[in-house]
Write a structure and sequence with these properties.
By secondary structure, this protein is an alpha/beta fold. It has 2 domains: about 270 residues, Aldehyde Dehydrogenase, Chain A, domain 1 (3-Layer(aba) Sandwich), CATH 3.40.605.10; about 180 residues, Aldehyde Dehydrogenase, Chain A, domain 2 (3-Layer(aba) Sandwich). Helix content is about 40%, strand content about 20%. The chain is built from 15 helices and 22 strands. It has a 7-stranded mixed β-sheet, with helices on both faces. Helix 5 links the parallel strand 7 and strand 8. The N and C termini lie far apart (about 80 Å).
């Protein structure tokens, strides 16, 4: 069953942009499209074929200081605008994203590789955060506290924190920016965005649309770099004019950024790694559980922080579930994201391929069986894989794979699987399927994660808080809680009244 999946990457035609000016090849500072101070650039490649898409500036700490300066100088004016004014600009930006969603999706697929249909979904998902926070801009309510002292009034106000540094990953190069930047702008903050070196064009396209929406100069700045990522990050985390840093990425890097932010006691939001359990109880709707697992596990070729990593199936239905899942996965098509038949695109780079290979080889060496897939092919493509009889001491059991590998484990009792699910240092998302209402409440309460999907493989939308516990991070994004991450609370005691 584990035969290579077919691809036709070279023969796929890449659609042309309706508006080629959205593919920007300069950074964006203080309302201007700029080159790096050194004049250096680096190339960005299509992960499906390693062809060059274009070049962007290779910026360093000095360039980043300029971006921070621009954000600081624009901050007072932006923070003092009315919430209605910020709402109107954000909503106009949202409309421009929706009007240009096809071009934005093409750019995203070019640099990230995910299927175009998925890319369109991400663009609309990303835009929905701008729409949401446009509305939340007008709802940053304070409080009046009943004073325990006569002739006094106790007032609580909320104020923007200041300049924000935003560092985003490559796996959702549009939505990871909008989810952070939308909240920051709605709160009255200005920002410097450092997108992944692999996927800068999505960020720059958003900046171009922000110009068209009418955002004032300096409110949004985008710094691009490949070789100087560490020093740009250090500047954002230690520059005293930056009052908050928001980062999505690995737990290792998140810990380093947190240490660096401590030098100026910045506010910080961290959305870090996961190792999501996905539990299928014997009373589950198996068809629904398989569909939910596929949505969670194989979206973006398994390169999501909330994708299922450890799949626990109760013993009585384990064989049936494994066989039916393998049948489904064997029907996937791996190839270019621009092929309408493609189910899974490429992984982002060779390093990602190496990690998936290492996890599978280790699992097999420790007794796992490959039901389907397991084949590494040329370029950045890897066949979607289903493993059974995975050992608890396999690397994949404790380390996030970030690739298209479904590792199945067998369990017998509820208490056993809850203990297994929680036996990790991280806690971002968890999923389970059951039709027993009592069991659902019990397991949902017991899972040590920030988000739980009960009879669903999806947990993210603008209305709900996104974030984890333990070493999966600090803070929440999206929802009514997301904007609070960019606000300071001020208490005012009016005495002598």
């Amino acid at each position: 069953m584990n035969q290579p999946f077919s691809t036709q990457v070279e023969k796929v035609e890449i659609p042309k942009l309706k508006d080629s000016s959205l593919l920007r090849q300069n950074a964006f500072i203080n309302g201007e499209w700029v080159k790096s101070k050194s004049g250096k650039t680096y190339s960005v490649f299509d992960p499906a074929n390693n062809n060059e898409i274009g070049k962007v500036p290779e910026m360093n700490a000095e360039d980043t200081k300029e971006a921070i300066k621009a954000a600081r100088e624009s901050y007072d004016n932006w923070a003092n605008q009315t919430a209605k004014y910020r709402h109107d600009l954000l909503h106009k930006w949202y409309s421009l994203m929706m009007d240009n969603h096809e071009d934005l999706a093409i750019i995203l697929t070019l640099e990230n590789g995910k299927p175009l249909k998925e890319a369109v979904g991400e663009i609309k998902y990303g835009a929905s955060f701008i729409e949401w926070f446009a509305e939340e801009a007008r709802r940053t309510y304070g409080d009046v506290i009943p004073a325990p002292i006569k002739n006094s009034k106790f007032i609580v106000q909320k104020h923007p924190v200041g300049v924000v540094g935003i560092i985003t990953p490559w796996n959702f190069p549009n939505a990871m920016i909008t989810r952070k930047l939308g909240a920051a702008l709605a709160a009255g903050c200005t920002a410097v965005v450092k997108p992944s070196d692999c996927t800068p064009f999505s960020a720059l396209a958003l900046a171009e649309l922000a110009v068209r929406a009418g955002f004032p100069k300096g409110v949004i700045n985008v710094v691009t770099t490949e070789q100087h990522t560490k020093e740009v990050g250090l500047e954002l985390t230690t520059n005293p004019d930056v009052k908050k840093v928001s980062f999505t990425g690995s737990t290792t890097v998140g810990k380093l950024l947190m240490q660096q932010c401590s030098s100026t006691l910045k506010k910080i939001s961290l959305e870090l790694g996961g190792n999501a359990p996905f539990i299928v109880f014997d009373d589950a709707n198996v068809d629904a559980a398989i569909e939910g697992l596929i949505a969670s596990k194989f979206r973006a070729s398994g390169q999501t922080c909330v994708c299922a990593n450890r799949i626990y199936v109760q013993s009585s239905i384990y064989a049936e579930f494994a066989s039916r899942l393998a049948d489904k996965v064997s029907g996937f098509k791996v190839g270019s994201g621009f092929d309408s038949q493609t189910t899974l695109g490429p992984l982002i780079n060779e390093k990602a391929i190496d990690k998936v290979t290492r996890h599978i080889e280790d699992a097999v060496a420790k007794g796992a069986e490959i039901l389907v897939g397991g084949v590494r092919r040329s370029g950045n493509f890897f066949d979607p894989t289903v493993l059974t009889s995975v050992s608890a001491d396999a690397i994949i059991s404790s380390e996030e794979t970030f690739g298209p590998v479904a590792a199945l484990y067998k369990f017998d009792k509820d208490e056993e699987v809850i203990k297994l699910a929680n036996n990790t240092t991280v806690g971002l998302a968890g999923y389970f399927y059951s039709r027993d209402v009592g069991r659902c409440w019990k397991v949902a309460d017991a899972l040590e994660v920030g988000m739980v999907g009960v009879n669903t493989g999806m947990v993210s939308n603008p209305e709900s808080p996104f974030g984890g516990v333990k070493e999966s991070g600090i803070g929440r994004e999206g929802s009514k809680y997301g904007i609070d991450e960019y606000l300071n609370i001020k208490f005012i005691n009016f005495g002598g009244l």
